[in-house]
Amino acid sequence: MRKAAAGVVGERWSLLVLRELMLGERRFDRIARNTGASRDVLATRLRTLVEAGVLERRRYEEHPPRYEYVPTEAGRALQPVLLGLLQWGDRYVTEGPPPTVFEHSCGAELETRTVCAHCGREVEPGEPRVRRLGRVR
């Protein structure tokens, strides 16, 4: 993960906020309640995610002014990462609530996998090569 990407989404509260958004929560109070974040910490984290272009802040009430947070295209692109991390935690870190099951609109349970866009085969651990600046490592 690049340092810049880790600075935006690699922090604990960012991941918890993004989890809540993926699960459908949009409002500050609900996100605070579900994550356990203090109001100051959550406000700072949401501001960072908005400034990074991961979330958009939208007003949903005029008086008093109230806002909700909606994933941008960049935020929605994090869904497979978050889904994979949640599934990894449910499988390998057994403390806490029961596993969360995600279903596709067809009703089948979702499981994250990395698949080659060219040949369609699943990518096995250790199989990918890293190519930087035209070099293969």
UniProtKB/TrEMBL annotation:
The keyword Transcription applies. Keywords: DNA-binding, Transcription, Transcription regulation. Residues 1-97 form the HTH hxlR-type domain. One of its GO terms (molecular function) is DNA binding. It holds the Pfam family HxlR. It comes from the Bacteria. SUPFAM superfamilies: Winged helix' DNA-binding domain. The keyword Transcription regulation applies. InterPro entries: ArsR-like_HTH, HTH_HxlR, WH-like_DNA-bd_sf, WH_DNA-bd_sf. This is HxlR family transcriptional regulator. It comes from Prauserella shujinwangii.
